[in-house]
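Checked the freezer inventory, then went back to the computational side. Two predictions to log before the end of the day. The first one is the construct we discussed on Monday; recording sequence and tokens without edits.
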Amino acid sequence: MLTTQAFDPKDMVFRYLGSSGLKVSVVGLGSWLTIGQTMNGATVKDCLQAAWSNGINFFDTAEEYAGGNSEVELGAALRELAWSRDEYVLSTKIYFGTGSKEPNTWGLSRKHVVEGLKSSLERLRQPYVDIVFAHRPDFGTSMREIVEAFTQCIRNMNMAYYWGTSEWSAEQIKSAMAIAEQYNLVGPVAEQPEYNMFHRHRMEVEYKPLQEQSSYGATVFSPLACGILAGKYNDGIPADSRLALNREELEDEINDLQSANGRAQIARVRSLTQVAERLGVHTSTLALAWCIQNESVSSVITGASRVEQIHQNCAAVALVSRMTTDIMDEIETILENRPAQPDDYGRRRVSKRSLAEVGIGYR
């Protein structure tokens, strides 16, 4: 007889997803290039169980990942684990479809948003997702239709509780929020952008007014820059690495790694490794903690193909309290890429809820 393990938050930290009342673990588990692609069956279940045992309650996927197979494998593992549905947060993303060439099977038309999400739920074997993200902006569909489509999924069809954006510009997000306000529709609550030590401008500059004025959330992806910030490519591309196993999909990343810019990044990673070693942690743990210490980050979406990677990633939560001003300054000196902020002439408005209000931990 299957025994369901009740959720235990352990020492995990939870933050509100933007202005919503939904709390997500600051470390989440994603599925891009892993679940349904390089890992299946029992391995998926073991990684989910390890995440759950470390206090992770947020799991992310997308219709596009592994041509829909990521949702299939994730759904099968969740069904077998049989956790109480009210104890975990599940998100998927709609835009790219699953590979069909039929023109209405991708994009953000009302047809694809509704039917794409229906198909995702079937693959996940779930009655709803907590969050559905618009995986990219759709320049061929009016913003009003996009907002109406996600509102229909939430209000009329009960297929999701919230919706968000991924790799949208701040102007596009503000447009969606304004239309929602004008027509009494449901607006987006969070963005899913790339954010790591080498990719900072969008999170730290472009989205900053949205974060401060509208408490717009962020579930960031690629916190380790496809593994570069884990130090695994310091001496070349290992045969079992993400870049080696996904050469076609990550061709641009591989080319960049072998360029002058890539060699400069590797040199910086070697210096970061020295900082990590002084702190007694892995370089990847330091990179994740650096992301988490940004209070505008709701959750850092991590990837893992082995259970030990889950434990290593979750160690970043405890490290955040040890990221002193001196440590952060040393990291900035190594990176030399702090984005310049626009001059606010002393009139920046701040209304973001503090961590004291949202709760540093489970309390």
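The second is the one RB wanted added to the comparison set:
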Amino acid sequence: MEGTTNGRLQFRSLEPLDTNLEDGHLLFASSKIPSLSIVVGLMLVFRNQTSYNRFWDGRNYLTVIITCVRNLTRSFLANSHRSPVADRIETERIIRVLIAILYATKNHLRADWGAEIIPGTAVNPSTGNATATAEYSDLLPKGLYGCDDRGLGLVLQLTFFVEQYIKKGFDKGAFHAPQASQMQVQLNSLVDAYGRMETIRLTPIPIAHLYGLPYVLYPLESVEEKQVLALFGCVLPFALVDKMDYWAIPVVSLVMFTLYGIDGIASQLEDPFGYDRNDIKMDFIVEDIRSEISVLLEEWKRASQQGYDMFVGKRQNSVGQAGNPADVNGCP
């Protein structure tokens, strides 16, 4: 009899949850809660870390695109302000295309298809109609039509204009071979960063992450993460009520509020390119870069028309000596 009792006790100690029914109350052994808490905690930490990596990577790739646009803008303007008028017109057009790439990246990641359609500028090939979008005004090449309905994103479409400009500049001698090669590297880096941001946008958190805990508890394989937290919240009061009595109610409420809050943080960071308060401030960032490039473009146009060097306001002669000062007081 004693051996049988000891065997039952040993078997009972191996049960995942030690339950007891006393005086009509269902109780769980509090010693089992730390193990469950560790599992739930690891699940939430892993989920949050994965989501934050997506957020941080998205911000870094946006910085790569901005850096490439800045470098290409600087190179194009610095090497063309002494060019003929026709070449300067083409340079200004391609600088506006670079600005449009920023908007196109933002809109593509937000699934704002067809936003490039502008009256008198871009035409929808399927309908022949156009709709106004203020942020693309004066940026896109004349006659451009979008191919979003056929699966071609506007960003990749616009990079063809940039590469063609580099090729034409090399053929004309405006860029030497190493310089043109470096410009091509910048353009390739831009497209690469755009593709990585697109991967973050289109690839959801894997099912194994969302359902990782149920794969440990095999009978619950169809239960998702929030339901696992709910199950943990249902078990927790029975483990605390024996020692905490009615205080178990506020304690469990506080614990579950915290756990669901941590889970909510992960949900917010999974897709960092939207309009939510916690998303990357893409509208502000893109508008800031547009203002920056617009200043460069206006200064370049002023210097090109008046024959001055950019940002100095003085004419430079053939030997690099300062000539007559320009009637300019800083950037216009």
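For RB: The chain has a mean pLDDT of 75. The CA atoms of residues 229 and 260 lie 8 Å apart. Let me know if you want it refolded.
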